[in-house]
Amino acid sequence: MKAPITLGYIDLSFHAASAAVVREILEEHGHAVTLRAAPHEAMFRLLEADAVDLVSSAWLPASHGAYLAPSLDKLEKLGALYEPYCIWGVPDYVPADVVASVDDLKKPEALARMDRRIAGINPGAGISRFSQAMIQGYGLDAHAYRFEAGDEASCFDNFRRAVDEGRWLVLPLWHPQFLHQDYRIRALEEPKGMLGGRDAATLVARKAILPSIAPRALERLRGLYLGNAAVSGLEHAIRVRGLAPQTVAREWLARKA
User: Fold this and answer.
1) Three-class DSSP category at 34
2) Number of Cβ within a 10 Å radius of residue 183
């Protein structure tokens, strides 16, 4: 029996989707895998404390770089699984000739209809940190806009209710993300570059665990690439179709074989 592996992931469903693929590869090569989920900062503290062996995944450099920094000397970046990026989006029924950019949120036509509460996910997420800074950076606070951190369920439920009612709102979101499969969400132009740009969703491992990983498994992990579209599809299958993460991961790997 190969060495047991503890695989960590940030406690959001798209991270669970990519972690399921990593787990499947390790288990195919004889490793017993224990999954451990935690919020953003907590997961990287676990990695620093050697409480997890791998993390799928760290968004580098912008979203999670500061969290990973204390541990860099004892970690290896195995490869990028996809290329995430953050957006402020609006439902596509919000006219683009009225609201095309973040600055347009201050126009009288937008102020007349836009929800000034911008509801997001947990405060440790890159999109939450960026969004809070943007309220001041774009002078939106002068127009009573505010960012409120929450969790995945409350953020997405708020968005769905608004769409059902035809209300205007800003959704702090990212790619890849399963809501893009079911809704047309238009990204606002963000000329100040405060959303961090495009990251590399990087599979990171403790250097000390690498000799214990089956060579063929390690080779496959180093070459593993999902891409944004695949991660969105995997997450959608888990969140909307109700499939088990390992079932989804197994099916995806079988299609790629």
Assistant:
1) strand
2) 15
Which of 187, 216, 237 lies at the terminal end of a domain, its last residue? Answer: 187
Q: Which of 135, 164, 187 is the last residue of a domain?
A: 187
Strands 33-38, 5-10: pairing kind: parallel
* Residue 79 sits in the same domain as residue 100: no
8 A C-beta contact, residue 34 and residue 5: yes
The answer on 252 and 218 residing in a single domain is: yes
Inter-residue contact 37 to 121 (CB < 8 Å): no
Q: Is 39 part of a structural domain of the chain?
A: yes
Instruction: Please check whether residue 64 is in contact with residue 58, taking contact to mean a CB–CB distance below 8 angstroms.
Output: yes
Question: What is each CA distance from 94 to 55, 97, 112, 131, 165, in whole angstroms?
Answer: 38, 9, 12, 20, 13
Tokens of 154: 């409350």
Give the span between the Cα atoms of 234 and 18, in whole angstroms: 8
The β-bridge relationship of strands 5-10 and 54-60 is parallel
CA distance 170 to 243: 29
Q: Could you list the mean pLDDT of each consecutive 10-residue stretch along the chain, which spans 257 residues?
A: 92 94 97 96 96 96 93 96 97 98 98 98 94 98 97 95 98 96 97 96 97 96 97 95 94 90
pTM assigned to the model: 0.92
Note down the domain range covering 177. 85-187
